[in-house]
């Protein structure tokens, strides 16, 4: 007998896969209907003490309350017919699990809608307008620009973060472009990511940092998008100083992700990023130090395969030097000569760009 939890999980995972691989075949009306049906589930409370009790008896599969069904006569009547096969099992559905899967589905609705709009036989201006309408709906339904209220559960913040991380990772161009910059959406998005990153709950905090990695990484390889993510880089720098070691380690992984995606010419605002990496090398934790060194080696393309980029690797190193003042440049030169060049980075290049989170 399949558990109800397994069935719910399977159905939502199937929906997620359908959305992820729709490739423009999903209609906007259908996506809109799914979105509105899933939004309320983002506010499911924390699982502790809030599980949904469900009976998995094949003859009685309704959702029941602990005190709602208590008929001994009816149980006896069924047992006389079904014998020992009449065994009612109760399964507790984790509201956390449902909420997380639902939130990822909401994120993939944006991904699917983007693909659908791109397939429209309409002019570019009409497509842009459709995408702006989609972003406006996404922002309103997820309450991204609303000020955080004291009574908002941390679980809803987690749902918001997951739903945002999906399109930032899979189709960032719909969120970050000249139109959304001009409308002020990117600025509001940065402020929301800040709220995630400074959240007292470490789980939500780490989602915020992953959003930073996707946002900044996209900008470093798409120079036609003219936006300075100063706020996000400052937040990433604070990640290297975070009291929770997992956040500091994640900051180094995110930095490597960004460094991998950098393309010449390196934007001037990446100077802040480079300086933060140099500070990470001074961390007391050896794993954080190694992570910072790895990100620097990738950014400077040390011992990188010749076919990794159309530009010579030496141009990346020179571009990094050009971003810095004399004192900081001397610090980087010393580090490279005395430590980084003496290490073999072949395994780093073999593994490729860090995913930051292989579950989303």
Count of runs of 4 or more consecutive helical residues: 16
Q: What is the β-strand count?
A: 2
Report low-confidence residues grouped into runs of 5 or more: 50-91
Cα-based radius of gyration, to the nearest Å: 25 Å
Biggest β-sheet: count, sense, barrel?
2 strands, antiparallel
Overall average pLDDT: 84
Write down the overall geometry: globular
Helical content (DSSP H or I, runs of 4+): 55-70%
Q: State the secondary-structure class.
A: mainly alpha
Succession of helices and strands: HHEHEHHHHHHHHHHHHH
Question: In which order are the strands of the major sheet placed?
Answer: 1-2
Question: In whole angstroms, how far apart are the ends?
Answer: 29 Å
Q: Could you tell me the strand content as a percent range?
A: under 5%
InterPro entries: ARM-like, ARM-type_fold
Protein name: HEAT repeat-containing protein 6
Pfam family, one: HEAT_GCN1_C_2
Short structural description:
The chain has 360 residues and is mainly alpha-helical. The protein has 16 helices and two strands. Strands 1-2 form a two-stranded antiparallel ribbon.
